[in-house]
Design brief:
By secondary structure, the chain is mainly beta. It folds into two domains: 2-94, Rossmann fold (3-Layer(aba) Sandwich); 102-255, Sandwich (Tumour Suppressor Smad4). The protein contains four helices and 20 strands. The chain has helices at 16-25, 44-53, 83-91, 166-169; strands at 2-6, 29-30, 37-42, 58-62, 78-79, 96-107, 110-115, 118-123, 130-138, 141-149, 151-155, 170-171, 174-175, 187-193, 197-200, 209-213, 217-222, 228-231, 240-242, 248-261. The strands form four sheets. A seven-stranded antiparallel beta sheet has the order 7-6-20-17-9-10-15. Strands 16-14-11-8-18-19 form a six-stranded antiparallel beta sheet, with no helix packed on it. A five-stranded parallel beta sheet has the order 2-1-3-4-5, with helices on both faces. The longest helix is centred in the first third of the chain and has 10 residues, at 16-25. The mean pLDDT is 95.
Length: 262
């Protein structure tokens, strides 16, 4: 079997040479062409990125670190110090492959990519709060929220431990870094990011976070011009610019992300 090594191109958690040695010593070939599976070493950010850009089965290997610059690696299926054991199990066929749904993202009806974890519309550096609308439609479902805040995040089950869980981590005037939300595979999570105001059409409610059935269509649009950016579909730090005339739509994706698990 051949393994494809997938690391952070800027500051990898382990050196490519070290990882190459571990994988070859476990009895695998290493290469990008016609690889049977990929080995992603890093944290949730890298898992999210390669989870949407790769179509081969992926083994997520966590390298946890403390501090604000570290990663929680919630999506890891093994740790780096246990990698030789995990590779031995793969060689013996003692593993399963989980299929995780992706979300498709469109701008004005044109696809801009798929996401494995989450996608979010957020204010850029040159903007104050965004004023925007979230519309959700589906079988026997019609929701329309107006909001003022930093933006909104749309997540799959795989991404629920990320940005979507900031609400769970707030404990009065402190926070619990280990807390996170639980989302089922048949749900999509929607969470307003630190809003100052929300309003649900046809009700007296002021929603912060809610879940909708998989298959729902979610449309995002600005109600006032601002420096708004869409993140999650590109690795560009500036994201994808969204203007007042644009509509961003999130629908079920066409592909799945396959994760190796034990």
């Amino acid at each position: 079997m051949k393994a494809k090594l997938l690391l952070d191109g800027g500051s990898p958690k382990v050196s490519p040479e070290e990882l190459d040695k571990v994988v070859r010593e476990a009895g695998f070939e290493v290469g990008s062409s016609r690889a049977d599976f990929g080995i992603v070493v890093g944290g949730d950010g890298k898992f999210s990125w390669f989870g949407r850009t790769e179509d081969i089965p992926l083994l997520f290997v966590g390298v946890r670190s403390d501090g604000v610059s570290g990663s929680r690696a919630h999506l890891a299926r093994t740790s780096y110090d246990e990698l030789p054991r995990a590779l031995a199990m793969i060689k013996a066929g003692s593993f399963t492959t989980e299929a995780h749904k992706r979300l498709g993202v469109l701008r004005n009806g044109k696809p801009v990519g798929e996401v494995f974890t989450d996608v979010y519309l957020q204010r850029g550096d040159e903007s104050t709060c965004l004023r925007y609308r979230v519309k959700v439609t589906g079988p026997r479902l019609s929701i329309s929220d107006a909001a003022i805040g930093d933006g909104v995040v749309i997540t799959t089950q795989a991404g629920a431990t990320g940005y979507y869980s900031y609400v769970d981590r707030i404990k009065g005037e402190a926070m619990d870094p280990a807390a996170y939300a639980d989302l089922s595979a048949d749900q999509v999570g929607i969470c307003h990011i630190t809003p100052t105001y929300t309003e649900r059409e046809g009700s007296s409610g002021h929603p912060l976070r809610f879940r909708v059935p998989w298959g729902s269509r979610i449309d995002l649009s600005l109600t006032r011009d601002a420096d708004a950016r869409l993140y999650g579909t590109t690795d560009a730090r500036e994201g994808l610019r969204v203007s007042l005339k644009d509509q961003v739509s999130i629908v079920p994706g066409r592909k799945v992300t396959r994760i190796i698990a034990f």
